[in-house]
Amino acid sequence: MRHLIIASLALTGCAIDNEFREQTQTDTFGQAANNKVDILWVIDDSNSMQAEQDLLGQGFAAFAEAMEESNTDFQLGVVSTSFDETGGGGVLIGDPPFLTNEDIDYQQGFVERAEIGTGGSDKEKGLEAATFALGPTMVYGGPNDGFLRADGQLLVVFVSDEEDCSDKGALGNQPSDDCYLQSEKLEPVSTYITDLRKLKDNRNDINVGAIVGLASSQCDEVEAPGDRYAQVALGMGGLVADLCSTEWSGIMSRLGLNAGGIRESFRLTKAAQPDTLAVFVDGTEINQDATDGWTYDESTWFITFHGASIPERGAQISVEYTVIPGVDEPDGSGS
To answer: What does residue 123 show for φ and ψ, rounded to 5 degrees?
Structure first.
């Protein structure tokens, strides 16, 4: 009996040692060397969006400048937030259906597409429209054929003054107010993050931006905060900007940088103890700083670079840290 007790204590001791042993982790990332990017703009075409469509068109020059400076080989398409599960919506607007950097007048072509009009549905289904537009039936032999290149990166940008109402038909022909009154019937945001993730084998080959109303927005143009769009963008390490900004060149310049394949955010593979993080770019350690360094979001596991510290094309990033044990992946962020 004495030998059994000793053996039992020895096994228990091993279990305790294993449970409390710290696990260290090193994640490595590469800033894209490939400059090939497909960019889908999802623009609200409801009756309150005229001013925002104008601002988008006016700010596009800054977006284009950032892309040209990074020598981006881009394809540029636009869809509206009007989407009908019976087959309407999700088709790229214009002729040709998408623009490229080889088109001499691509900036004017985008402005014409961005001013999409205000006669669309008041049940804005931007998330559903985007994932459908990029789905296999649309981009392989369908009306959006050729837009999504297998060897390119993807940027999706949502522009809306309203909350997303993507419901996959659950609300039927009910009035638009039910997007809020019966919000539990909307398709979970995690569904659309997962659908977008499936489009690329490498999670760092897809980025999402959102120019939407925020809870802090201070303008009458915002019908409702675009929380669902913001959740998708943040959940994928992308940029969220305030629709109420009266001058969009700064917003568009940052999006243009993202469009050029230069990512600002990279998601760690595990939850990190913040005070153990060490971040390196091409072997040089970068300071933690919200202006010209990096920050870490514990809720999404993203390291985000700022200002002069944003890694250049082709740079190698490594992040060393101690893992917080037993933490599940952020909702919807799995591959």
So the answer is: -110, 90
Is 81:57 a contact under the CB 8 Å cutoff? no
Q: 106-121: per-residue pLDDT in tens? A: 999 999 999 888 888 8
Q: Find out whether 94 and 106 touch, Cβ atoms under 8 Å.
A: no
Helix (H/G/I), strand (E/B), else coil: 110: helix
* Residue 306 within a domain: no
CATH of the domain at 245: 3.40.50.410
pTM for the model: 0.77
Q: Which domain holds residue 228?
A: 36-259
* Strand ranges of the sheet holding 265-267, from the earlier edge strand across to the other edge: 265-267, 302-305, 294-297
One-letter amino acid at 308 equals A
Q: What's phi and psi for 325, nearest 5 deg? A: -70, 150
Cross-sheet strand order for the sheet of 206-212: 99-100, 73-80, 36-43, 153-160, 206-212, 240-242
Residue 96: asked if its preceding bond is cis (omega within 30°), the reply is yes
Q: Is residue 332 part of a domain?
A: no
